[in-house]
Amino acid sequence: MRVDPQPEHERPQPSEQPVADATTASESRHAGTVKWFDVTRGFGFLVDDGQNGDILIHFSVLQPHGRRSLPEGARLECLAVQRSRGLQATEILSIDLSTAVEPTPRARGEGDRVDPVAMLDEAGDFEPVAVKWFNRLKGYGFLVRESDSADIFVHMETLRRAGLHEVEPDQRLRARIVDGRKGPLAVAVERDD
């Protein structure tokens, strides 16, 4: 004798069948903080709160929100799918900019900004350095010379041009350095292999 776990009167009728969730079986919901977003390339990464690794955010999923980029530190909720290279966002559910690190708008002509690439001709040869600290949310950090322990400012874009997306304290690198207005500045870096 078969026992039905749910009496007939409690079972959903054909017109009351539960509707499948809007997410497909391969999509999963994630929340996290924007690690970085490169406007020129049109993508960036979200650090997943659930420690599932980084999630690729392509600018196309931002378009329904009227955006082409995201500031570092913004909080997102998204749906993502597993691709061959990792998780990729398929839909942004919410954007919270309250923790974002928005760049300060600057008026044209303010001479504070330095273009490290334009200073390459002034730079010395590559020399050994070590990472002192680097803050991805701020987009900069400091290296130290092995010869005199002097602090050397390094910007995130300088690291990206070298293909370095992550650096850790005490990591060995080689850098070309110039004397900037505010002190030594790394204008080019490379791995110390």
Which spans of ≥5 residues are poorly predicted at pLDDT below 50?
Answer: 1-23, 104-111
End-to-end Cα distance, whole Å, is 73 Å
Number of helices: 1
Shape: elongated
* SSE string, helices as H and strands as E: EEEEEEEEHEE
Subunit arrangement of the protein = single chain
Quick recap of the structure?
By secondary structure, this protein is mainly beta. Strand 6 and strand 7 form a beta hairpin.
Structure commentary:
- The longest helix has 6 residues, at 156-161.
- A hairpin with a 5-residue loop joins strand 7 and strand 8.
- By secondary structure, this protein is mainly beta.
- The strands form two sheets. It has a five-stranded mixed β-barrel with strand order 1-2-3-5-4.
- It contains one helix and ten strands, in the order E-E-E-E-E-E-E-E-H-E-E.
Features of this protein?
3% helix, 193 residues, five-stranded antiparallel beta sheet, 1 helix, mainly beta
Secondary-structure blueprint:
Elements: E1 28-38, E2 43-48, E3 54-58, E4 75-83, E5 86-96, E6 127-135, E7 140-145, E8 151-155, H1 156-161, E9 172-180, E10 183-191
Parallel strand pairs: 3-5
Antiparallel strand pairs: 1-2, 1-4, 2-3, 4-5, 6-7, 6-9, 7-8, 9-10
